Structure formats: structure tokens, C-alpha cells
Amino acid sequence: MKFTLLSTFPKKLLIYIKKIPVFFSKAFYHFRHWLHDVLAYIIVGVLLLSLTFAFFWPTIIITIHSGEAGVLYKWYFGTVTDEVYPEGVHAIYPWDTLYIYNVRIQTVLHDFDILTNKGLPINISLAVRYRPEYEMLGVLHQQVGPDYVNTIIVPQVESVLRKRLSLYDPESIYTNKHNILTKVVEEALEELGKKYITTDGIIIRSITLPDSIRDAIEDKLIEEQNEKKYIFTLKKEKQEAERKRIEAEGIKDYQNIISQTLSESLIKWQGVKATLELAKSNNTKIVVIGSGKHGLPIILGSDESKAPLSKLKKDLKKPPSKKKENATSIPKTTPIEENAK
Q1: Residue 71: beta bridge partners?
Q2: Are residues 173 and 160 in the same domain?
Q3: Does 75 fall in a domain?
Q4: What is the rounded distance in angstroms from the CA atom of residue 117 to the CA atom of residue 172?
């Protein structure tokens, strides 16, 4: 029995192997006819699928550029607040939406008018530097939205400044008296920090007052500065007078000390030393060693030598006298001899 099965198995296997080409040929024949019948439908379907994919491509493949972040809104579940999509390429379902936010430091300019405690209008120009908090971007999108600048930043800053600056007069605001503007800006920054936004600074670009008020304040400031200048000048003059008084007292004390030890011999000795120094100088012309005033040498060109020199010149210019001059005048007879005669 076993031998019979083993002997007949190869024959049946060969029969099945011979039927394989026939089977594939029949299958290919039927597939070709089927493909010929449905080829037009397949082409149309592929084209429709391609067009659909091309149409939904911008909503399926999202690119987040440098300095940006994304918040996903799912059609079934709503805003995803616990995940922020970073930079790069992301694929989402076409029925979902990925909102892209700029997370870099940005600046918004804003001008507005306020009324002071005296009812005068003041125009303030601001520049606010801000950026959204990266981790809280989903919550910011859910509770505020993409237009958070005009929804939170500008109204919040304007509200704080209006409420605080309306308590002061125009001069205090214009001159920033007691750091009013600094305190108001710090309060505005603190309020913005509670709204999922990081504010790097609020810059007050300009404060514009009515022309008459501005001119009056500027005139007052000029007068105050002139008054301070006058006070400073008086203080400086008092200090200079005190300096001169102290200097005079020092000179007086110096002279008193010198006068106690000063003698005629010392003066002459100092004069000789000064003459020697002048003789060494390039400007010294002639030094006559002789007895001048106080026994000092005569230096031609000085005040002492000018008078004798001029007198000498005058004597030389005078004509010689005709009267006979004798060295001595001796009488012929003495009074005793005259009496004897």
C-alpha cells in the first residue's frame, strides 16, 4: 500500500507542474481582459487621487520656519495646549489646523492721548518689546488667539498708563518727577507678565504737551537752571575768597618768620648768589663787579644802572667849563698872620 502511494506521487506532481503554466496563462488572459475593461476607471481614480493630494498638500505638510512655533487644533479634540510644534516639517491630517506664531522679540509702536489731573491732554508715544512665552503658546492661542498684540498688549499698557498718569500734573509727567514714568512702566510690565507674554521693555519715545504749556514748563526749567548756576557761582566765589584769605595768612606768617632771621649780611650774600646765577644766563650781557646799591654788583640793563648811565651821558654831552678848577683852594694868609700884621 505504501509502495503504491510513493510510486504514484511523482506522477501526480508532474501533472500539477505541467498545469501551472496553463493556469498562469489563463489567469493572465483574464487579468488582461479585466484590466482592459477597468483601465479607464483606474486612470481616472489615480488622477482624482493625485489632484486631491495636491489640493490638500498645504494642509497636510506644514513647514515651521526659524523663529516660529506651532499650535495644533484638532477637529475632534480641540486645541492641543500641552504640546508646541518646533521648527521643521510636520505632517497633519487635512481636517486639522496648525497655527504658526512668531516667538522672536518683536516691537509694536503705539500713540495715545491721556488727560492729566488738570484736564490737559498729553500725547504719549510708546514702543513695546515683547514675545510670547514658548511653553504657554497653546494656552495663549486657546484663550486669546493670534491677534494677542491688539487684544492684550496695547490695551493693557494703555490702561495702566491712563490710570496712573491721570493722577499727576503735566509738569511732573513731562519732567519725570520722582521717577513717575519709571514706576508706571514697571507696573505695566508686571501686568503683561500675567497674560502669557514676556515683555522685554516699554520705551516712552516722546511726550507731547500743548505748545503753551510746553513753553511755560521749559521757561521755568531754564530759570531754575539759572538759579542753580547763580548759587553755584556764589559758592565758588566764597571758596575762592576763603582760598585767598588762607593764602594771605600763609604769606604773612612766612614774612614774619623770615623777618626774624633776615639780616643785612644775608641779603648781600643772597644778592651775590643771584648775581652769579644771572651771570651764567644766556640773557646776561654785562655784569660790573663794584659797589652798587646795598653793596651789590651793578648789572647793566637793570633799573639801578639806568639812572647813573643816563646821568653820565648827560654830563658827557655838556660843554667844558671855562672856569679854572683847582684841586684845592688854599688862602694866602691865615687868620693869625693877618692879625699879626
Answers
A1: 99
A2: yes
A3: no
A4: 11
Residue 225 grid cell: 537752571
Q: Is 275 helix (H, G, I), strand (E, B) or coil?
A: helix
Mean pLDDT by 10 residues, the chain (341 residues): 50 68 74 78 85 80 92 91 92 90 93 84 91 92 92 90 87 82 88 86 86 77 86 91 90 80 72 75 60 55 47 46 42 41 41
Task: Please provide residue 107's backbone torsions phi and psi, each rounded to the nearest 5 degrees.
Answer: -130, 135
Residue 281 DSSP class: S
Q: How many domains does the chain have?
A: 4
Q: What's the number of CA atoms in the CB half-sphere (13 Å) around residue 52? A: 7
Same domain? For 107 and 196 the reply is yes
pTM over 0.70: no
* Domain region containing 249: 221-262
Q: Single out the residue of 101, 205, 91 nearest to residue 145, CA to CA.
A: 101
State whether 233 and 295 are in the same domain: no
Within a 13 Å sphere around the CA of 305, how many CA atoms are in the beta-carbon half?
13
Q: What is the CATH number of the domain that holds 146?
A: 3.30.479.30
Same domain membership, residue 178 and residue 112: yes
What crossing angle do the helices spanning 154-165 and 180-192 adopt, rounded to 10°? Answer: 140
* Helices marked H in 166-263: 170-174, 180-192, 211-261
CA max distance for the chain: 225
The Cα–Cα gap between 124 and 109 comes to 11
For residue 303 the three cell numbers come to: 633799573
Same domain as 276, residue 251: no
Residues 278 and 255 in one domain: no
Which residue in this structure is represented by grid cell 506651532? Answer: 70
Question: Left, alpha or beta for 83 (phi > 0: left; psi -120 to 50: alpha)?
Answer: beta
Q: Are strands 78-79 and 88-91 parallel, antiparallel or unpaired?
A: unpaired
Rounded Cα gap, residues 100 and 69, in angstroms? 6
| Torsion sign, CA atoms 244, 248, 253, 254 | positive
